[in-house]
């Protein structure tokens, strides 16, 4: 009403806002404790309530084990240090969703991580999910279905599209990995392909690449020599003009190299079924699985 102190009104609104965020934090951590990932990292003792106390999370009645994995949504300038701290602490898996990491920071972080037993996914990626088991990242679990197809992709949204198509066709997934579209990343196409080839549950692989760099050409060489399972591929950026970055930091045709046409030809020569449109991924996988079972 008239005569009310504007500062008092703002303080009251701010207090209401903080109370709401705190309640949402409590609800989120209550949910987190019921997930499989949380159960894997928390020793079950008496009690079950998670309490958000400012920026500190107290797990009442529970004894924390040393975590085995980390998921980072930090500001880009803080990411490299967080990755190195996690690797130094012995975490076996670190997933970095954050984009815009300074290149020199990633050079430093990657050099540090590669000297330790730590798998880095990303940065600038949606993370990974094993359908029906666990996830670390932002891939929507409700579109996934347990099955026998592995997915590795530079693009987050095209990862979701491929998952959705496969699920609608009744073709589930083993693990879906978004490796990220930056020039410097922790896990490459070749790394993921090697894991899928060694995984008995995975019977086919979807590879989604994009213009720029040589990651897809390296993947084609590895597939030619070391992968016996059917692979379906798609390359984004087929109409991109040379010299212009399209979306991801690494998605740029430079010096006439890294074009979609070159990558599609390399993958096709390695025996990959290459589709020209992402809408054809699901059908191509179904056909590839049908042929391999004959």
Written account of the structure:
It is built from nine helices and 14 strands. About 13% of the residues have low confidence. 39% of the residues lie in helices and 20% in strands. The strands form four sheets. A seven-stranded mixed sheet has the order 9-8-11-10-12-13-14, sandwiched between helices. A three-stranded parallel sheet has the order 5-6-7, covered by helices on one side. It has a two-stranded antiparallel sheet with strand order 1-4. With 294 residues, it is α/β, with parallel strands linked by helices.
Unreliable stretches: 28-64
Radius of gyration: 22 Å
Q: Give the helix/strand class.
A: alpha/beta
Order of helices and strands: HHEEEEEHEHEEEEHEHEHEHEH
DSSP summary, beta strand count? 14
Number of helices: 9
Topology:
Layout: H1 6-33, H2 36-41, E1 42-43, E2 50-53, E3 56-59, E4 63-64, E5 69-72, H3 76-88, E6 93-96, H4 103-113, E7 119-121, E8 127-130, E9 134-137, E10 146-153, H5 156-168, E11 173-178, H6 189-198, E12 204-210, H7 215-226, E13 231-236, H8 260-269, E14 273-274, H9 281-293
Parallel strand pairs: 5-6, 6-7, 10-11, 10-12, 12-13, 13-14
Antiparallel strand pairs: 1-4, 2-3, 8-9, 8-11
Features:
alpha/beta; seven-stranded mixed β-sheet
Give a quick precis of the structure.
This protein is α/β, with parallel strands linked by helices. Helices cover 39% and strands 20% of the residues.
């Amino acid at each position: 009403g008239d005569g009310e102190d504007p500062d008092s009104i703002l303080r009251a609104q701010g207090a209401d806002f903080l109370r709401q965020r705190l309640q949402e934090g409590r609800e989120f951590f209550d949910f987190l404790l019921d997930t499989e990932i949380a159960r894997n990292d928390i020793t079950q003792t008496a009690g079950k309530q998670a309490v958000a106390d400012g920026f500190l999370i107290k797990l009442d009645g529970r004894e924390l084990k040393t975590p085995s994995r980390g998921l980072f949504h930090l500001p880009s300038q803080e990411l490299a240090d967080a990755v190195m701290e996690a690797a130094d602490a012995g975490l076996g898996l670190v997933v970095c969703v954050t984009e815009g990491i300074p290149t020199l920071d990633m050079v430093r972080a990657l050099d540090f991580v590669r000297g330790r037993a730590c798998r880095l996914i990303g940065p600038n990626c949606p993370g990974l999910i094993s359908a029906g088991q666990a996830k670390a990242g932002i891939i929507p679990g409700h579109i996934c279905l347990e099955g026998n197809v592995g997915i590795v992709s530079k693009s987050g949204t095209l990862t979701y599209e491929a998952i959705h198509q496969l699920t609608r066709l009744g073709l589930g997934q083993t693990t879906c990995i978004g490796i990220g579209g930056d020039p410097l990343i922790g896990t490459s196409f070749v790394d993921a392909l090697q894991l899928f080839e060694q995984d008995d549950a995975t019977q086919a692989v979807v590879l989604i690449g994009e213009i720029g760099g040589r990651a897809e050409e390296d993947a084609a060489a590895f597939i030619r020599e070391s992968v016996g399972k059917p692979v379906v591929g798609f390359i984004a950026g087929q109409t991109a003009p040379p010299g212009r970055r399209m979306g991801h930091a690494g998605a740029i045709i430079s010096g006439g190299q890294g074009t979609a046409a070159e990558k599609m030809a390399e993958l096709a020569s390695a025996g990959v079924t290459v589709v020209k449109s992402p809408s054809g991924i699901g059908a191509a996988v179904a056909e590839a699985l049908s042929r391999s079972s004959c």
